[in-house]
């Protein structure tokens, strides 16, 4: 599955309609650790096709960042059945993400 850009307009629909786990990456262009996460997320995209991955640019989607109380980036939130089930802050290894998404 392709990594999708999430906005205030499509966030609820993408999260609640998914029958798969959803990993949401709250990030910013200027954030070095966020840039370190990008290749990890692309690897997960190919290794775990049963997981939907979305990205929220916190500079463009401040309301979403506020709604989910994102104070540090990168923040990665896992949703299952439309509900937040886990949150990780900072650079997270691919192995940690895979374990959390099982």
Task: Characterize this entry briefly.
It is built from four helices and five strands, in the order E-H-E-H-E-H-E-E-H. With 102 residues, the protein is of the alpha/beta class. Strands 1-3-2-4-5 form a five-stranded mixed sheet.
List the SSEs and their pairings.
Elements: E1 4-5, H1 11-17, E2 22-27, H2 32-47, E3 52-57, H3 62-67, E4 75-80, E5 83-89, H4 94-101
Parallel strand pairs: 1-3, 2-3
Antiparallel strand pairs: 2-4, 4-5
Domain Thioredoxin: 1-102
Protein name: Thioredoxin
Organism: Coprococcus catus
Key traits:
single chain, 102 residues, alpha/beta, Glutaredoxin, five-stranded mixed beta sheet, 26% strand, globular
User: For this entry, what is the oligomeric state of its chains?
Assistant: single chain
CATH architecture: 3-Layer(aba) Sandwich
CATH homologous superfamily? Answer: Glutaredoxin
- Spatial order of strands in the largest sheet: 1-3-2-4-5
* Beta-strand content bin: 25-35%
Largest sheet: 5 strands, mixed
Please, how many domains? 1
Note the total helix count: 4
As for the CATH topology, it is Glutaredoxin
Strand tally, please? 5
Query: How would you classify the helix and strand content by structural class?
Result: alpha/beta
Separation, N- and C-terminal Cα atoms: 17 Å
> What is the average of the pLDDT values?
94
The value of Rg in angstroms is 12 Å
Quickly name the level 1 CATH class. Alpha Beta
Task: Give, in order, the helices and strands.
Answer: EHEHEHEEH
Low-pLDDT runs of 5+ residues are: none
Organism: Coprococcus catus
Pfam families: Thioredoxin
Site (Deprotonates C-terminal active site Cys): 25
Active site: 31 (nucleophile), 34 (nucleophile)
